[in-house]
Automatic annotation (TrEMBL):
Name listed for the protein in its UniProt record: 1-phosphofructokinase family hexose kinase
UniProt keyword terms in alphabetical order: ATP-binding, Kinase, Nucleotide-binding, Transferase
Domain Carbohydrate kinase PfkB: 17-297
Family: Belongs to the carbohydrate kinase PfkB family.
Alphabetized NCBIfam families for the sequence: 1-PFK
Species per Swiss-Prot/TrEMBL record: Pelagihabitans pacificus
One Gene Ontology cellular component: cytosol
Xref: PROSITE patterns: PFKB_KINASES_1, PFKB_KINASES_2
């Protein structure tokens, strides 16, 4: 298996709870909260661990919440490399109203990252990356990190001959993709931004995705279609992967679980088609888990076999 390094520049301690009815100007009695380590790259490392793989989880963290984050990942037996920050790691909140089964998600902006802190991140990557590694940059940029940060990471990865995987949004995604990536995992909204259009119809999806790959230094793309599955796009072919129908509990972490499955599949030598199917199985399995929980290995394997049986 090839080495996988995940990068999270705006991690979080994710807190989830539930309450019987949400209304304003009232004291709401919540159930005991559940705390979990969060942030795109951290979630990916957690899923890779759940699926039996290994990764190096690199992230920026500071303050008491940063210490708690380190403790949770240590308890999960995940290899870590921490870039210390002067600001405290953020805390996010997800609340489920048990009377309606509606979930409310509150994402905080994160601490302001100083220039020496994000530059230290690049220096650490330069030190540890080795040709053939997979580097997965996933999640939002924290305040203070320049918009072209992932583009800088892409340039570094290219120089080190590392396979760069990018999963973010907005200008950070556009600039990072234009700098070059091995794998992108946009949803329809993110693909619209990449292609410079306001929306994408089913008819336009494949030609627009292939056009983007033809015009940018990216090798392949898996477009997340939510409960409909995904579209695998390379310069040579496209393929739709349908997701099994399930009873969803929460969509938190589904995208991260999907990407983790794909990266682990690639690192283990799966073909592009196999890794996309495995990713869809992981994303679907995550939606079966409540709150901020990610996918479970047993669910993933069952769903993956179902997908394989229908896409021989």
């Amino acid at each position: 298996m090839e080495k996988v390094i995940t990068l999270t520049v705006n991690p979080a301690v994710d807190k989830s709870t539930s309450v019987a009815g949400i209304k304003p100007n009232s004291k709401l009695r919540c159930d005991p909260p559940v705390f979990e380590a969060g942030g795109g790259g951290i979630n990916i490392s957690r899923v890779i661990k759940e699926l039996g793989g290994t990764s190096l989880c690199m992230y920026l963290a500071g303050g008491a919440t940063g210490s708690r984050l380190k403790e949770m990942l240590t308890e999960a037996d995940i290899l870590q490399q921490i870039i210390p920050t002067s600001g405290w790691t953020r805390e996010n909140l997800a609340v489920t109203d048990t009377t309606t089964q509606q979930q409310y998600r509150f994402g905080m902006p994160g601490p302001v990252i100083q220039e020496e802190e994000w530059r230290q991140t690049l220096d650490h990557l330069d030190e540890i990356l080795v040709e053939g590694d997979y580097l997965v940059a996933s999640g939002s940029l924290a305040p203070g990190i320049p918009t072209d940060f992932y583009a800088k990471v892409a340039t570094l990865a290219k120089r080190k001959k590392v396979r760069f995987v990018l999963d973010t949004s907005g200008e950070a995604l556009i600039m990072g993709a234009q700098a070059g990536a091995f794998l992108l995992k946009p949803n329809l909204g993110e693909l619209s931004a990449l292609c410079g259009v306001t929306s994408i119809s089913s008819i336009d999806l494949e030609p627009l995705a292939k056009q983007f790959l033809a015009e940018n230094p990216c090798e392949l793309m898996v477009v997340s279609l939510g409960p409909r599955g995904a579209l695998l796009v390379t310069k040579e072919y496209t393929e739709y992967i349908s997701a099994p129908t399930i009873h969803p509990q929460s969509t938190i972490g589904a995208g991260d679980s999907m990407l983790a499955g794909m990266v682990l599949g690639l690192a283990k030598g799966k073909s592009f088609r196999e890794m996309a199917k495995y990713g869809v199985a992981c994303g679907t399995a995550a939606a079966m888990s409540p709150g901020t929980q990610l996918c479970k290995k047993d669910n993933v394997e069952e769903l993956y076999q179902w997908i394989l049986s229908r896409t021989a």
